[in-house]
């Protein structure tokens, strides 16, 4: 899952940026023009988690460089080698030096330095709410642009009139297999996975 989707991320955003060829769009139904200016911000600080180390990192890197930014990415300290290998592949693909930069270390030491740096105007973070609250505190004095993707809770409720032969397998699939029933992705370590089951009937 990680590698194929990472490839799709780069292809999608490389193609998407080509469709924004005009800053002005005619809005006939209201008789006016819609004007949008898309401009790079400069340096994007990208902080990605451990559970999909390549996919979620490329989900941030690809749109940032497609929009004309350079990036400083801080992967999870648990998956540093994955980020380093991605950089080597980008280098082989011809991405100029200095466009994609990786810093390694823990959140309190390296992450906070990245978030609070005055020359990094944009922070994109995927992770926990407590860390996001800390990022908000550090970035507020600089009025940085923030994108925060935090953890999710996805309960499943089984009602008394449910078809158990159908709902039990699909509920288990939503908790562990995530998308394809024949394959297990991350053993449920995704924010979109079902995390708790709340039956409304007595199974005893």
TrEMBL record:
Q: What PROSITE patterns does the annotation carry?
A: ALDEHYDE_DEHYDR_GLU (PS00687)
The active-site annotation reads 149
Q: Which intervals hold domain Aldehyde dehydrogenase?
A: 2-179
In the record, biological process GO terms are: retinoic acid metabolic process
Pfam families xrefs: Aldedh
* Record GO terms (molecular function): retinal dehydrogenase (NAD+) activity
Keywords for this protein = NAD, Oxidoreductase
Which family is this sequence assigned to?
Belongs to the aldehyde dehydrogenase family.
What this protein is called in its record is: 2-aminomuconic semialdehyde dehydrogenase-like
Organism listed in the record: Leptonychotes weddellii (Weddell seal)
């Amino acid at each position: 899952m990680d590698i194929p989707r990472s490839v799709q991320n780069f292809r999608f955003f490389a193609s998407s940026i080509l469709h924004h060829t005009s800053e002005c769009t005619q809005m006939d139904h209201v008789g006016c023009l819609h004007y949008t200016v898309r401009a790079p911000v400069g340096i994007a600080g990208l902080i990605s988690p451990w559970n999909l180390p390549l996919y979620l990192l490329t989900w941030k890197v690809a749109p940032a460089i497609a929009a004309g930014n350079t990036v400083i990415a801080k992967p999870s300290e648990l998956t540093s080698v994955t980020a380093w290998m991605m950089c080597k592949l980008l280098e082989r693909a011809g991405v100029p030096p200095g466009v994609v930069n990786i810093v390694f270390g823990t959140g309190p030491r390296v992450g906070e330095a990245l978030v609070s740096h005055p020359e990094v105007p944009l922070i994109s973070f995927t992770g926990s709410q407590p860390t996001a609250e800390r990022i908000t505190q550090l970035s507020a004095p600089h009025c940085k642009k923030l994108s925060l993707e935090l953890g999710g809770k996805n309960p499943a409720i089984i009602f008394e009139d449910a078809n158990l032969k159908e709902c039990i397998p699909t509920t288990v699939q939503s908790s562990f297999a995530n998308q394809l029933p024949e394959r297990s992705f991350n053993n449920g370590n995704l924010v979109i996975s079902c995390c708790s089951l709340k039956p409304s009937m007595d199974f005893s």
